[in-house]
Amino acid sequence: MRLLLQEMKNTGCEINGGTFLSFIESFARFNRFDEAVGVLGMMEDFELKPGTFTYNHLLNVLVEGNKLKLVEEVHSLMFSRGIKPDVSTFNILIKALCKAHQIRAAILMMEDMPNYGLYPDEKTFTTLMQGFIEEGNTDGALRIREQMVEAKCASTNVTVNVLIHGFCKEGRIEEALNFTQEMSLDGFHPDQFTYNTLINGLCKAGHVKHALEILDLMLNEGFDPDIFTYNTLMSGLCKSGEVEEAIEVLNHMVARNCSPNTITYNTLINTMCKENRVEEAIELARALTSKGILPDVCTFNSLIQGLCLTRNYRIAIELFEEMKRKGSQPDEFTYNMLIDSLCSKGRLDEAMNLLKEMESSGCARSVVTYNTLIDGFCKNQRIEEAEEIFDEMEIQGVSRNLVTYNTLIDGLCKIKRVEEAAQLMDQMLMEGLKPDKFTYNSLLTFFCKVGDIKQAADIVQTMNSNGCEPDTVTYGTLIGGLCKAGRIEVATQLLRTIQMKGMVLAPQAYNPIIQALFKRKRNKEAMRLFREMEEKGDPPDTVSYKIVFRGLCLGGGPIGEAVDFLVEMVEKGFLPEFSSFMMLAEGLCALSMEDTLGKLVDMVMKMAKLSNDEVSMIRGFLKIRKFHDALATLGRILKRRNPQKTYW
Description:
By secondary structure, this protein is an all-alpha fold. 74% of the residues lie in helices and 0% in strands. The longest helix is centred in the last third of the chain and has 15 residues, at 594-608.
């Protein structure tokens, strides 16, 4: 740079302040801020004294580059060289202090201006207002405006728009609208920035219809909405689930010659995928490409996520390959989605291949990636490979978190390697991670399953002593273990103790006791507990209803009680377990209560939403009194639709 200047001087080219300002700009553009400051020394070498304008230019460049330490140094240099500051100098320094979150110091600097024969202008006040707003303190910004009015400093749209933005940023939309109205009466004319700010604020607050009204007003006032206006409205509509209206806005946008960009399309595509409208989203992406707007990684991620959520894994993988062919580099989110999908399908080797591909492509692998794989291998009982991935994390420098340990501990407990799970818990503590309820519940579930109630009770005691509050899952698991061990009275007593703590119990706590009572033919007690759950606990779940219905069918009590409960169950949206329904049906036939059976079958068919053909076939069998054929057909249809799990 110096050689160039020397050559310019030798050839008679004029070297003035403008030349050095260009150098400052060039250095700043390439983030070489120290060299930008060095330009001041170069100026003096060429017998040019930097003045206020040069210092202001350099200070502003440094503030924009967020080099606040250098700002302080240059300001000190300016002061030591006797360069007088002007209003712009103060405004730049106030902006620097606001960026550094030193609002009080910025106010003191403004108050110091009269000592230099200077007075704040609109930019001074507006910069301070912006500083307060960035701190989330619009009321502070309003106090600065009051000072501005007292100082009789004229304001323009810039000041008003800054305050409108402040109200909107804090979600104070009504105040923003009222302030706009108030200022309009004082001669303020809203501009494009005003309208965009209000539309953005209204959309973020969920008032999209009102935002559309502002769009109409904007158009009536002769302003052309820009890409920001339309994208904001479409985002607001999509968040409200109004995709069709968002598409209308897109059409309006195109009709007014405002070209959509990738953000426009990504907003729509992402929402369509979340609403399971993946095919439409893919069509839109194709349209995007045909218009010369190439899909980016966000577009592909939305589509791949939508395909994975709708279980279209094959197409998701095809799109992933297309993504790479088109030069859009998959990111961590892309890989994590596909790895999760492959793990959920049990395609673990393919998931591992993707992990290797991540490594070879230089894509970062986070704890989420490894946790997903560990979970997949544990669920498929390939624990040794899960342990290998666990060890690999340390080699790769990826910190293991609570989820990592909990997943592997749970996997070990499920294959009865509880001693290793306990060792892993010790390792977890050594790494500074505190076991939570999920950690303890995994161990608790194991001991309850093997009938070791003492160990199970010790775990609950350890939880309490370590400040980990047992939850409904903890108590439900322990109650289930007690019932399995035949200790119903102790389980009931524990249930009462938990209730006294004010905890609202889930069905998982009630179900084991109800089931155990029915098994011992204590039907009345079981029904009392079921009704208590309805009244005092969380609503009974599918398992609750199936346990009670089966208990009533097996219990040898009045058949009418089982019939009434089935009606209640179906009315509340629960289908009976078919084996229990068959027992009831056989009982009704034995008592010549075929009409009642017919009505119950109709209720079940309606609840199960059988097709007209299926209903006609079953009713046909009932009409000719082929009850076994009717029930067998109904059973096959229900089993095909929803394979039953045994609860007894």
